[in-house]
Amino acid sequence: MQLVCLDLEGVLVPEIWIEFSKRTGIPELSRTTRDEPDYDKLMKFRLDLLCKHKLGLPDIQKVISAMGPMAGAKDFLDALRRDFQVIILSDTFYEFAMPLMAQLGMPALFCHKLEADAHGIVVDYHLRMPNQKKEAVQRFKELQFKVTAVGDSYNDIAMLGEAHAGILFHPPQKVIDEFPQFPVTMNYTDLRTEIDRATLNI
Questions:
Q1: Are 5 and 137 in contact (CB under 8 A)?
Q2: Which of 56, 84, 145, 197 could form a disulfide with 140, with the two C-beta atoms 3.0–4.6 Å apart?
Q3: What does the pLDDT read at residue 159?
Q4: In the annotation, is 36 catalytic?
């Protein structure tokens, strides 16, 4: 049985924090896992900024509600789901992602949760489990799935390495340079071709 695991932000939807940064005029919020591989350090940095600027979950959700999938993402995902079982493995949060999941046809999503106070200020985040992308792929393999994984950034590398086949999609050049073992695709047509090729060889 073939299973395809996709990252969400940067693969199917825009980077939520970058879009939020643009709309709030806070450039520091544009920092992502492309820039900071240490996810805990990155999230604490973000939460401190939100608190400093008195921005809460409703403010973020307002931005997300106006966003949509990347151009071509819905058609790509629909076609992929006709031929493979697909699961989204993301380091985003359910509170962020659900409006975008609805626009993508509600694919299965594994991610994390945020904790907000009574005023909507985000006070903490809770990982579903440490290194959940890699751990999920390990469990799928134990269930006898042949796993192809797709991601774009540092926090996807463990998942790509654990999968039977890993593919980078539109990654920054420094990720390409640091991880030359993974094939690189830059559009959905080439990504689908690479997924099909990979699944024939695993």
A1: yes
A2: 145
A3: 98
A4: no
pLDDT tens, position by position, 69-78? 999 999 999 9
Those residues whose C-beta lies under 8 Å from the C-beta of residue 13, and which sit 6 or more positions away, are: 67, 68, 69, 70, 73, 100, 104
The one-letter amino acid at 90: S
Residue 147 pLDDT exceeds 90: yes
- Residue 183 lies inside a defined structural domain of this protein: yes
Active site residue 7: yes
Is 50 inside a domain boundary? Answer: no
The reply to whether 31 falls in a domain is no
Domain that residue 191 falls in: 2-16+67-200
Whose CA is closest to 46, among 62, 65, 27? 27
Q: pLDDT tens across 9-21, in order?
A: 999 999 888 888 9
Question: How is residue 89 written in tokens?
Answer: 């493995």
Which class for 159: exposed (0-12), middle (13-18), buried (19 or more C-beta within 10 A)? buried
Catalytic residue among 9, 19, 156, 194: 9
What is the domain count for the chain?
1
Cβ within 8 Å of residue 190, ≥6 positions away: none
Q: What is the CATH number of the domain that holds 129?
A: 3.40.50.1000
Q: Is residue 190 part of a domain?
A: yes
Which residue out of 7, 91, 152, 162 is catalytically annotated?
A: 7
HSE, CB side, 13 Å, CA atoms: give it for residue 147. 26
